[in-house]
């Protein structure tokens, strides 16, 4: 293998896409890390996250408002400036960097309920301009992300529970699958539990 790599210049590892992790957090509750004596600067930088700057991008650019949070082919995140910048595509260049965006996984629990439903909104609502705007459905501002999901029809309970289980089954091991299924049994309605349980057992 090493001889082929050395003589023919064939790469041992090939990565077709770069994966970008997109933050999901409630307003003012983003995670901030800092080094010793760097708290003030970290707090200032922490005000701008990929999510808050996505909202800002939608406020400033009407042309971008039809896009979902997970669509990143036109912009790239500049960590040093803490903002989304238009991606420059070089004409005639055969290999352009390609990206896949992944929203962080949020567990369905009482502690993370708001973020869980915010993630659902971000996957289904194009061009939100603020935390308040994403909770607005047909001119009505809903007090919670869960109520906004219900108003949008995203919480067709059985379907939502089954989508959650499908995603967990694809990405995690048996223990995580069992834990998520147990949480669903706690937090969803009795009728949904029966239907979701039957479908999950089949798979």
Radius of gyration: 21 Å
The sequence of SSEs as H and E is: HEHHEEEHHEEHHHH
Query: Portion of residues in helices?
Result: 40-55%
The shape, in one word, is globular
Beta content comes to 5-15%
- Average pLDDT, all residues: 77
Overall SS class: mainly alpha
Main sheet characteristics = 2 strands, parallel
Question: In total, how many beta strands?
Answer: 6
* Number of separate helices: 9
Q: Which regions contain 5 or more consecutive residues with pLDDT less than 50?
A: 190-194
**If strands are numbered along the chain, what order do they take across the biggest sheet?**
1-4
Q: End-to-end distance, in Å?
A: 40 Å
Can you describe what's shown?
The protein has about 200 residues and is mainly alpha-helical. Helix content is about 45%, strand content about 10%. The chain has nine helices and six strands, in the order αβααβββααββαααα. The strands form three sheets. A two-stranded parallel sheet has the order 1-4. It has a two-stranded antiparallel sheet with strand order 2-3. Strand 2 (about 75-80) and strand 3 form a beta hairpin. Helix 4 packs parallel to helix 6 (about 145-150).
List the helices and strands and how they pair.
Blueprint: H1 2-8, E1 18-22, H2 39-46, H3 50-60, E2 75-78, E3 83-86, E4 99-103, H4 113-124, H5 131-134, E5 136-137, E6 140-141, H6 145-152, H7 157-171, H8 174-187, H9 190-202
Helix pairs in contact: 4-6, 7-8, 7-9
């Amino acid at each position: 293998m090493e001889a082929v790599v050395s003589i023919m210049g064939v790469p041992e590892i090939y990565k077709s896409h770069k994966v970008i992790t997109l933050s999901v957090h409630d307003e003012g509750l983003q995670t901030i890390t800092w080094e010793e004596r760097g708290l003030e600067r970290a707090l200032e930088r922490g005000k701008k996250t990929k999510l808050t700057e996505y909202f800002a991008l939608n406020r400033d650019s009407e042309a971008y408002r039809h896009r979902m949070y997970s669509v990143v082919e036109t912009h790239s995140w500049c960590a040093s400036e803490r903002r989304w910048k238009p991606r420059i595509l070089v004409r005639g260049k055969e290999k352009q960097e390609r990206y896949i965006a992944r929203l962080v996984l949020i567990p369905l629990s009482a502690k993370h309920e708001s973020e869980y439903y915010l993630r659902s909104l971000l996957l289904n609502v194009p061009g939100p301009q603020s935390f308040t705007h994403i909770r607005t459905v047909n001119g009505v501002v809903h007090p919670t992300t869960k109520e906004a999901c219900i108003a949008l029809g995203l919480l067709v309970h059985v379907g939502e529970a089954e989508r959650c289980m499908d995603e967990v089954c694809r990405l995690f091991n048996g223990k995580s699958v069992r834990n998520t299924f147990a949480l669903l049994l706690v937090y969803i309605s009795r009728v949904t539990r029966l239907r979701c349980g039957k479908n999950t057992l089949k798979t």
